[in-house]
Amino acid sequence: MLIDVSLALISDWATTLSLIFGGCCSTALTLEQITSSNPNSGSLITFAQFLGVTIHGLPKFVVFKPWPRLRPRRIAILPYLVQVALFYVVSLLNNAAFAYRIPMAVHIIFRSGGLVVNMVLGWLLRGRRYSLAQIASVLLVTAGVVLTTVSASKPKPGKAGQLTAATTSDHTMAYATGIGILTLALVLSGFLGMVQERTHAAYARNISSEDSTDGSAQPPAWQESMFYIHLLSMPMFYFLRDDLVSQFTTLNASPTTQLVIPSPSQVITAFTHDSNYTSKYLSTSPIGYPTPWSLPSGYIPLILNTLTQIICVAGVHRLTSRVSSLTVTLVLVVRKAVSLLISILLFGSRGPEQEKRTMMWTGAALVLTGTVLYSIASRTPVERRDKKDKKD
After folding, report:
1. What does the alpha-carbon distance between residue 30 and residue 35 come to, in Å, rounded to a whole number?
2. 24 and 158 share a domain?
3. What one-character DSSP code corresponds to residue 319?
4. Are residue 243 and residue 261 in the same domain, yes or no?
5. What is the span of the domain harbouring residue 276?
6. Cα separations in angstroms, 280 against 198, 266, 292
7. Is 107 within 8 Å of 148 (Cβ atoms)?
């Protein structure tokens, strides 16, 4: 019995970590492939991700008896609408920042600065107090984010090895705009976290229930939240229809690639006959050889990014439902470090110059160290005492 429980626990953790590291790291990789060739495709990327998650969740939340309808919700629609507005804007801003010459490495590290925003909002809006260790850890994270941001603030020299004043000025303005967009996304993401925390506290009893009112099995609460946040965001893309059409047109103009997908009958034939017979059969059969599909090459990373985003989101929410927020923070920090390593190793030539990488790696190390120290310092009962004082 004990061995079975241990194996089940190991299998559950292996599945969760595989979803996170496999899905999220692959998402970062495919995202960099898209934005390196189409940096202005932020709206299209966001639309594809939201559409993919929505379609993936439909079978779980649509009941067909006695007529097609959505399952009863655990959480009222109004709290979802607030989350939808914030999540939609944050997602658009994060993807739009690539159009302003923000390298993927800087993008990853800068978004790790959400710890700073969460602390400031907690202090200003909720009156939370933090220990000196927590404050020092956040300052360490801040220093790392600033160092990383500065490391890519100057453009790379051109083929002649020189930079003109106009080139430097244009790059600086674009880069500053991109950093401003990421900063706004961080602040709004902090507000989103506070709204989600309050919502889960207000509907804790409903969230803990695993069955719907009609007695049928109901998906976990985290799947409901993920589904409705993406589903209710879809109508908002109507206001971006011109941008989406333009970005689709640009993607369609990318060089075509040939995809050869055999039909099921051809696969069966290949596995049930010897190679000579198979070759003869395919050449004389009306089915013929697999017909190659012509597809603009830009769609391939977009499709892969959408699929891996579904896996990534599912893995993060699965982890959140199983462990404490401290463990979630540590796992996601390690995941971002792995994504950063992959980005620099595979796309380093598109990032900052070699002499600037020291600054970027130092900044990444500071962010990682500060986040881990903050997580350890959060074990102290400072915030718990604040909550108790407020109740009294």
Report:
1. 9
2. yes
3. H
4. no
5. 256-295
6. 67, 12, 19
7. no
287 and 303 housed in the same domain: no
Q: How far is CA 236 from the centre of its chain?
A: 19
Residue with tokens 């986040």: 371
Q: What is the rounded CA–CA span in Å between residue 215 and residue 207? A: 16
Provide the number of structural domains found in the chain.
2
Does 2 or 80 have the greater pLDDT score? 80
Q: Residue 270, class by beta-carbon neighbours within 10 Å (0-12 exposed, 13-18 middle, 19+ buried)?
A: middle
| Distance separating alpha carbons of residues 97 and 103, to the nearest angstrom | 9
Question: pLDDT (tens digit, 9 = 90+) per residue, 38-89?
Answer: 888 989 999 999 999 999 999 889 888 788 888 888 888 888 899 999 999 9
What's 20's DSSP letter?
A: I
Q: For residue 286, what are the CA distances in angstroms to 264, 280, 281, 282, 291?
A: 15, 12, 9, 8, 12
pLDDT digits (tens, 9 = 90+) for 145-169: 888 888 776 666 554 445 556 567 7
CB atoms within 10 A of CB 45: 26
- 190 has pLDDT over 70: yes
10 Å Cβ neighbour count for 151?
A: 25
The contacts of residue 235 (CB under 8 Å, 6+ apart) are: none
pLDDT band for position 232 (cuts 50, 70, 90): very high
- In the block, tokens 């649509």 appear at 62
42-61 vs 25-37: helix crossing angle, rounded to 10: 140
Distance CA 111, CA 336 (A): 10
Residues in the chain: 392
Task: Identify the H or E element spanning 292.
Answer: strand 292-296
> Is the bond preceding 157 in cis, omega lying within 30 degrees of 0?
no
Are both 66 and 186 inside the same structural domain? yes
Q: Which runs of consecutive H residues, i.e. helices, occur in the chain?
A: 2-18, 25-37, 42-61, 77-96, 104-111, 114-126, 132-151, 165-202, 204-208, 221-231, 241-252, 264-272, 275-284, 299-320, 325-347, 354-377, 382-391
Instruction: Of 206, 148, 134, 54, give the one whose Cα is nearest residue 336.
Output: 148
303 and 274 assigned to the same domain? no
Max CA separation in the chain (angstroms): 85
- Are the C-beta atoms of 98 and 35 separated by less than 8 Å? yes
The answer to whether residues 78 and 117 belong to one domain is yes
Assign residue 215 a region (left: φ > 0; alpha: ψ between -120 and 50; beta: otherwise): left
Q: Are residues 9 and 61 in the same domain?
A: yes
